[in-house]
Protein 1
Amino acid sequence: MNSLSSRLLLALFPANANFFKLSPDGVDMSALAEQAGIQQGELEIGLAEIERTVINDIETSGMRGRLALCLKHLCGTGNGMVYIPDEGNAKFYPLTRYVVNRDGMGSVLEIITLDSVAPSTLDPKLQSALGLDKKKEGNSKDDSAEVNVELYTRIYREAELWQVYQEVNDVIVPGSEGTYPIDACPWIPLRIPEEDAQSYGAGLIFDYFGDFDALEKLTKAMLKGAAAAAKVLWALDQNAEIRPTDITKAESGDVLRFKADHLKSITQDKYADFRFVTEYIESLIKRLETAFGVRTSIQRNGERVTAEEIRYLAQELEEVLGGIYSILAEDLLLPLVRRIMDRLQRTHRLPELPQGIVKPRIVVGVAALGRGQDMRKLTEWATAAKQSLGDQVFAQRVDAGELMYRLGAASDLSMKGLIKSDETLQQEQQDQTMQQAAIRAAPNLAQAAMAPQGEPSGNQAG
């Protein structure tokens, strides 16, 4: 479970890299820059600055640890919720601390959360309004032993807005009412897998419940068998002249007078059965390790394990996780980015963006898997073509510029300014040709400049 959750965390939130990009929706970047009255480069720099601001807020607010805990619960129980307040660090809610209601399409309609709050941390006026300042009569316990109160928060959807209020002891907390945009809700409930008309997920363990159940029962049977096999029993012949107490009281090295064949140890002839059970347990563990992304499970036992085998099996495992990536990209990453951008805009740390024009686009998870496959196929094809055709024929038949553009697209990198255009290459070739011609002509010009203008006559010489 730890391995799979860590794998998902690194895939969805890679270190020192953006997991999303801001891009125009249905509008070309140059057209949007023209509408804004700025250069396209300035627009790209501004969007990149917004992306860095959002990533920096995630890294500095302690959100990564909460997200790691949420992913672990998702893999195990199939449910979890992240809360991103207007200020301060994020919070994780396990399934025992919230309920959620979804419609048949999976859209969230209502959420109720439960928090335990110490009355002393609340404002005195708020304590008085909620009736928390009254001491219970007849309480013989120490007054310093404060009892937390249950704080319920209700979030429900109404008229394209999220309505929020809180209750303590069936009393609405004054000043707790509020609204949030429909696409920037601070509460982000998650579930795996997604099923129609189901408000909760069953988790990945549910898919492998049979293997877990069999592993649990076989392990218990092996423990009982090991305990029985470890028990030492002796069988003494009924006609033996020695008494059982003499044998049990004898110390190591004592000499007893009786026939040795009258005493035998009782053993269980279950080694073959235990071996079969042990091998089956190992196969179950191997299968579960593969399903839950344990890296050691993708390597077979052997002296000669090729790197290609490891890469192939790792790629297969990544493709198996593609379904989880697609769910989390839609239900976690996009709402997370929208919420953080809304929070930063509320505190005037981000500028207001055009509604419905500039939208975040997730570039990790399934998108990264698709680009990784394109990159792998392009690299394999180029390597095979160069080996088959040779460097000279490959350079003649393959368009180097187009190949570089496709490799850049597979890497999700902008090729603007990185690849020279055909006009630039032609101009450079012309300049190089002219420079070489000038170099070749330089010795002749120098020799002509150093030669005398004319030979002097003999009379003048005399």
Protein 2
Amino acid sequence: MQEVYNKFLSAGFAAFNESNARYLISQYGYNYKKFLPSNKSARILEIGAGMGRFLQYLGEAGYENFLGVDISPESIQYCEEKGIKKVQLIKSIDDFLIGSGNFDLIFMNDVIEHLPQDETLETLHRLYERLNSGGRLIIKTGNLSSLIGPRIRFGDFTHYQGFTEYSLAQVIQIAGFSVFQVYPFKVPRNRIRRIIRAGLQKIVHGLWKLVYFLEFTYPPKIVDEIIFIVAQK
């Protein structure tokens, strides 16, 4: 699998994200701003720096003490070429966390689905250990309860698993977190077409929940494409 990560950007990931850079950055602010610490010197870690969009948001928001790590050499090289210097190439998440020290806030944006299932809980336990008291862990991932759940799960060769709001909360609790909340990852409604799209989306989501009901199963609360969980130590 490391062979895939060595070519993760050039194999197609970069083309989509390059054209949507500012849009992706705005999404992070729209969804995460209220969960960020007021202290701009807080120690923040992002696991899976990717193309540095979230790191770029942190820098623009005035945060000073942040770091992004990734196992993809292409990702780290891309970030550095774009002037994002607070990045580090690592061999594995667990190896890095063993000697990393503690953080006030840890992010995993679209990473947990790339972890083998038998390694997920061990990684979450380490993340819990690496949070300062009162620190937060925020995990964003695709929602398999959404209408396009199968595309999310199988749309990337490096995906090992998928989550719903329930299974994500399940592993978070097992990892030791007792305070947490799952949210839909929303698109900023700052343009007319996005407002119209949000209205239509609300109708589609209502119909999709009706399908769950008709199948005699408990409808999920969130059927948006992307979800994130905020857990506090």
Protein 3
Amino acid sequence: MSQYRLLRCLAAFYALWLTGCATHSESFRVVEKNLANQQPELALQSLEKQKGSRTDEVLYLLNKAMLLRIAGDYRASTASFEAAQQRMGALSALSLREQGTSFIINDSTRSYVGEPFEQVMVHVYKALNYLQLGERDGARVEALQVDLKLRELGEKSGKHLGEAFSRYLTGIIYEDFGEWSDAMIAYRKAYEAYLQDKSKYRIDVPAFLKMDLLRLAHRLDLGEEQDKYQREFGIQDWQDKNQGNAGGELVFVLNNGLAPMKKENSVVVPNPSRGGLVRISLPYYQSRPSSVYKVRVSAAEGGVEGERVENIDAIATGNLAEKIPAITARSVARIVAKQQMAVQARKNNNDALAAVIDIIGFITEQADTRAWSTLPQDIYLARFPLGAGSYTVKIELRDRKDNIVAVREFPNVLIQEGKKTYLSYHWISL
């Protein structure tokens, strides 16, 4: 690429950056504020105002889908998720031109395709949308897609992807269809994932999952496996809470808070080889802790405590930490390439061009801070066996000291015999 072409490319991006970057960040702060005020419709309007370039289309569609879900429009949410998936598929192989531009300018010029864990969560939330609508067949399709996506991503990276909750949800869906063997396989994989997640993502094996493993091992007559789980869990006496109960089960999902915000950390250091200053900019996550740490679900005369089943804050942070060496290497390579162009310009006695390349190259060395910010910080789950009938379900959200933060009631929740009823809620406070 010629010096003048590089200059035009850098200058064009700089102009776009000046006019667009601040607008995007300011608009998203408004989105967050609207969500904290329990006004998802206004958040949607704010998101539309900050709709970005074609390279950010996937990110826009993911955030739109989540806002529609929070607003209770599950069908429109699913449609937006599907549009995001289609765009992800089209971008699976980035063009050489786009890769070249990102090398010269910065990573944010590449089309956003979603982090691996975000791609899995698309299927998770599509499944939850279908379950909320009572469309179990659609949820089962997404459960199968979760398996396929995890297999695909695992083969590419060879790494564990923070997949515990997605595995657990597929098990619940398979069990809802009476597919006991498939449910058992999913619960086993979820258990293995939670064991791996315990130290890395700071999350324990849910007690609900332990009982699911015991219950299905008993149902499938897997005596040795049941005994093994009883020893591992320290549970000697247990019983199937659904046994003898002419009813069904309420499955409640709390999406708590907002995922960490990706920001930029820039360091300006002297250039040891030719003087002047160079700038290295890397992304980092800033957590946005929620005030809620406990959830209790009650109906009629009983109730259950919810458990945290996913820590998206820790998964996102861990995922970025693994990528930082590669991000740093690309940043250094860009700086070297820009400096070489400036050196060449000076050799050609074009000091003015060299100065402009240095200045614009310095300014455009920006970190890619894009992320699916409307994901929750973490997810809580409660499984509540109930007799057949119509209930008013009460949700109590509590802080670390067990003080009540908020109470929500859901009237006319129908529990059918032999079936699961799914209910979810998003709580956001900033």
